[in-house]
Design a protein that fits this description.
Layout (H helix, E strand, L loop, with lengths): L1 H14 L7 E2 L2 E2 L7 H8 L5 H12 L1 H4 L4 H8 L3 H10 L5 H14 L13 H23 L2 H12 L3 E5 L4 H13 L5 E4 L2 H9 L5 E7 L5 H12 L3 E6 L4 H5 L2 E4 L14 H20 L1 H15 L13 H4 L7
Parallel strand pairs: 3-4, 3-5, 5-6, 6-7
Antiparallel strand pairs: 1-2
Helix pairs in contact: 1-8, 3-5, 3-6, 5-6, 8-14, 9-14, 10-14, 11-12, 14-15
C-alpha cells in the first residue's frame, strides 16, 4: 500500500499546484487544478444535487461559462447563486471569478483534454493524460508556428553536405544523440558532441559543404554558441534549432525557431523536447527524401544488418526478416 500511496501522491502533485488534505472545518480546502475539467469529473460524485446541476451546465458549454456572470450560470443551471458559489468551493476555488479564470486557462492550455473520449477516474490515468496530452500540445503548437522555409534550407544543406556535426548540452545533449541516430542510417558521416571542448575542436575541422547543427532550448549555451561561430568562420553551413532572438540564433546561418512555454510545476517534464524531436524527425525525413536512392540503399543495409540477428521490427513486404529466420542469431 505504501508504494501505491507514493504513486498517488506523485500523481496529485503533478495534477495540482496545491492540494488540500481533504475537508477541514466542514469545508473543502482550496486547490488549484491544472486540468479543471478533470477535477470536476473526479468530485462529481461528492457534489450535492444543486452542485451537480451547476457542473452539468458548465460541461454543456465550457467556453460560454468563462463569459457568464454568476447570475447567468445560476439561471442556466436552475439553482441559486449561493449554490454556484458552493460548487466553486467544492472544486477548490474561493469564488466564481477565480473558477472562471482557471477554466479559461484550462481551455487555452489544455483544449485537447476536452476532445478525448476516455475519462479517467484514477490518479495514474489523470497523470498520464496530463503528461501525454501536454506533449502532443507542444508538437501541435510547434507545427502551428513552424518556419518551413528554414526547415527547407536545413534539409538542403544536410542532404547536399559532406559531413554533419551535431552539438547539444544539458537536456539537449540527448536530443543531439538522437539526431545522430536519425542521420547516420541515411549514410551521412555524422557525429554528436556534448562536451564543450570537443564541440570547439570539431567545429575547427569543418569545411565548406559541411554542416554544424546546434540544438539548444535556451539559446544561451556558451559552448554551443562558440562552436557554431567557429564552424561558420570556416565556411560550414550552420543550423540552429533554438529560441529566436537568442545569442545562438544570432550566431547561426539557418535558424529553426521554437518557443514552447515551460510548465511552472517543476515535476512536469520539459515539453519543448517533444517539439525539438518532432522537428528533428521532420528534417531527417526530408533529408532522406532529398537523397533518394542513396538513403534508401543505406536504410536497406541497416535493416538487413538488424534482420540478420533477428531484431528488425516487422514491416511491409520489403522486410527482409523472413529471409533471415533460418540464420542463427549472433546475439
Amino acid at each position: 500500500m505504501s508504494g501505491r500511496g507514493g504513486l498517488r501522491s506523485y500523481s496529485n502533485s503533478v495534477l495540482t499546484s496545491a492540494r488540500s488534505a481533504g475537508v477541514k472545518g466542514g469545508r473543502r480546502e482550496s486547490v488549484a487544478p491544472i486540468d479543471l475539467v478533470s477535477r470536476i469529473q473526479r468530485v462529481e460524485g461528492d457534489l450535492s444535487a444543486a452542485e451537480r446541476r451547476v457542473a452539468a451546465a458548465v460541461a454543456a458549454d465550457y467556453d460560454a461559462t468563462t463569459r457568464m456572470t454568476i447570475g447567468d450560470l445560476a439561471k442556466r443551471a436552475g439553482v441559486s447563486q449561493p449554490s454556484v458559489t458552493r460548487f466553486c468551493r467544492s472544486v477548490g476555488f474561493g469564488s466564481f471569478g477565480e473558477f472562471k479564470v482557471r477554466l479559461a486557462t484550462t481551455l487555452t492550455v489544455a483544449a485537447l483534454y476536452l476532445k478525448t473520449d476516455r475519462v479517467f477516474d484514477d490518479d495514474v490515468g489523470q497523470l498520464a493524460r496530463v503528461v501525454m496530452l501536454r506533449a502532443s500540445n507542444a508538437i501541435r503548437d510547434c507545427l502551428e508556428w513552424l518556419d518551413t522555409s528554414a526547415v527547407r534550407r536545413a534539409i538542403a544543406a544536410i542532404a547536399g553536405g559532406a559531413r554533419l556535426d551535431i552539438y547539444g548540452q544539458g537536456g539537449s545533449a540527448s536530443l543531439a544523440e538522437d539526431a545522430k541516430l536519425r542521420f547516420f542510417r541515411l549514410g551521412i558521416p555524422v557525429c554528436a558532441y556534448a562536451d564543450g571542448h570537443q564541440q570547439r575542436m570539431s567545429a575547427s575541422t569543418l569545411k565548406p559543404k559541411d554542416v554544424a547543427f546546434a540544438i539548444s532550448n535556451s539559446g544561451h549555451s556558451r559552448a554551443v554558441i562558440g562552436a557554431i561561430e567557429i564552424a561558420r568562420s570556416y565556411g560550414a553551413t550552420t543550423v540552429a534549432l533554438t529560441r529566436p532572438k537568442t545569442p545562438l540564433a544570432a550566431a547561426a546561418e539557418v535558424v529553426i525557431p521554437i518557443v514552447i512555454p515551460e510548465d511552472a510545476n517543476a515535476l512536469m517534464p520539459t515539453a519543448s523536447r517533444y517539439a525539438h524531436m518532432a522537428v528533428i524527425d521532420t528534417v531527417a525525413t526530408g533529408v532522406a527524401s532529398e537523397m533518394g536512392m542513396r538513403s534508401l540503399e543505406s536504410l536497406r543495409r541497416v535493416r538487413y544488418a538488424l534482420a540478420s540477428i533477428g531484431v528488425a521490427i516487422p514491416s511491409p513486404s520489403s522486410d527482409p526478416t523472413p529471409l533471415m529466420k533460418k540464420r542463427n542469431p549472433r546475439e
